[in-house]
Amino acid sequence: MTQEKTNELKERILFEADGLKLPCKQAFRIAADLNCTVPEVGKACNETGIKIVGCQLGCF
Questions:
Q1: Percent of the chain with pLDDT over 70
Q2: Are 28 and 55 in contact (CB under 8 A)?
Q3: 3-class SS of residue 15
Q4: What pLDDT does 55 receive?
């Protein structure tokens, strides 16, 4: 993933997050919208201090 794409992803996560939390459903939607993988979204969340919550599968 390019640095530009990573920055776009982090900006989107910060915009969508509710405080320091991002629902898992939104993480999947962000991945689909930005054509990246869910693990990339998870990594970007970790780097920005955002916790993914509400995962029914226990992935996060």
A1: 92
A2: no
A3: helix
A4: 81
CA distance 9 to 43: 10
Encoded tokens for 47: 């780097």
- Give per-residue pLDDT as tens, 9-26: 999 999 999 999 999 999
Give me the pLDDT at residue 47, please: 96
**CA distances, 13 to each of 2, 18, 25, 30 (Å):** 17, 10, 12, 8
- Structural contact between residues 48 and 19, judged by C-beta atoms closer than 8 angstroms: no
What SS3 class is residue 22? Answer: strand
9-10-11 Cα angle (round to 5): 90
Q: How far, in Å, CA of 45 to CA of 11, rounded? A: 10
